[in-house]
Amino acid sequence: MKNSKREEVISHSATKLFNIVIDIEKYPEYIPWCTKMIINQRNKNEIFADMYVKYKFILSQKFGSHVKFDKNNLTIETSYIEGPLTDLTTKWKFEEIDKKNSKIFFDVNFKFKNNIHQKVAETFYPLIENKMINSFKKRADETLD
């Protein structure tokens, strides 16, 4: 299983950054490989959704997830339901430094069913993670403050 933990200071409020990340319906607008999001169920503090992902030379794949979130503590946790993985968990935590700066904590664990896909994903994961975090930062810069 691949694990990655990341901390980063971003020049926006923690609450506003949380709102961007939890607004998963908008991911196809700015996450490069996300082609479609389908919300299957939404409750007060959880979402069941399918994200459709398309990478170069690979057919579109569906990743079903259960997203739990806490607006008071500014946390988001995702657990895997179905798709090409055996497991996937993500955790986001947003902490206010001051009114214009926040620290984000991002933790991900994943394992593909196919060992070749796992090795490829582990090799390219730093690039994928950077692209994803940068997409969220760019979205924040374009839509906030």
List the main descriptive attributes of the protein structure presented here:
145 residues; seven-stranded antiparallel beta sheet; alpha+beta; Alpha-D-Glucose-1,6-Bisphosphate, Chain A, domain 4
Instruction: Report the portion of residues in β strands.
Output: over 45%
Distance between the termini: 38 Å
Q: What count of structural domains? A: 1
Main beta sheet: strand number and arrangement? 7 strands, antiparallel
* Large-scale geometry: globular
* Strand order in space, largest sheet: 1-7-6-5-4-3-2
Structural class: alpha+beta
CATH class: Alpha Beta
Mean pLDDT across all amino acids: 89
Topology pattern, helix = H, strand = E? EHHEEEEEEH
Given as residue ranges, the uncertain stretches (5+ residues, pLDDT < 50) are none
Number of strands: 7
Number of helices: 3
Assigned CATH architecture: 2-Layer Sandwich
| Helical content band | 25-40%
Word description of this protein:
It is a single chain. This protein is of the alpha+beta class and 145 residues long. It has one domain: 2-Layer Sandwich (Alpha-D-Glucose-1,6-Bisphosphate, Chain A, domain 4), CATH 3.30.530. It has helices spanning 14-22, 27-30, 115-143, and strands at residues 2-10, 34-42, 46-53, 61-70, 75-82, 85-98, 101-112. The chain has a seven-stranded antiparallel beta sheet.
